[in-house]
Amino acid sequence: MSVSRIERKTGVALWRQIEQLLTGEIEIGVLEAGSRLPTEPALAERFGVNRHTVRRAVSALADRGLVKVEQGRGSFVAEHVLDYLIGPRTRFSELVHKQNRNPGGTLLFARREPADTVVADALELAVGAEVHWLETLGEMDGRPISVGSHYFPADRFPDLDEVHRREGSITRTLTHYGCGDYERRVTKVTARMPSAGDAELLLQGRARPVLVTESVNVDSAGQPVEYGMARFAADRFQIVFET
What we know:
Helices cover about 30% and strands about 35% of the residues. By secondary structure, it is an alpha+beta fold. The chain has a six-stranded antiparallel β-sheet with strand order 4-5-6-9-8-7.
């Protein structure tokens, strides 16, 4: 049960006491990671103070990195950050498992289409060659963390969409085709604001940036097997480069 009482004659500022009480609730899980804090009026009523005092307490929590303040949406308890290791054998599920978290994913859609210039260059195909396009939602502990676009040569991987639906992951799908030992050839990282669709899928506001990774995975002979572009919720994810 949360504690709401503050003392007015302790010599400790009221906003500081509120900060300490909310910090304790975050630490013991009363306020869960990713959850929204009560509104300023609700906190002001709970603690019997004015909104300015509440605002200063929440600002102090934000300065410590315990909450994120989003204009127009409110304040949210900061989420656990995934260390995403970029190396020759980058595997999303393995990385999440190693950090004692639970990976998950959803196939949003799968279709075949002609490769545009970017996809064709990455996969070393002719422009217009048919590719499989899989759009996926990556999750950690049930919370969305990334939206990924994955492209594969259709001639090399027939029925890849059906295999992926059965296997449930990119790695197991490529293993089915004898390419489970694929390695990362290159990764490019940029940052931008999310599209409306990505923001909705990631459960975040349009004013919060996403980290974008573009990557090419190759088989043991150095032949490209996948071109991917993933958009990560920036405050739930940090990139670690293996050297």
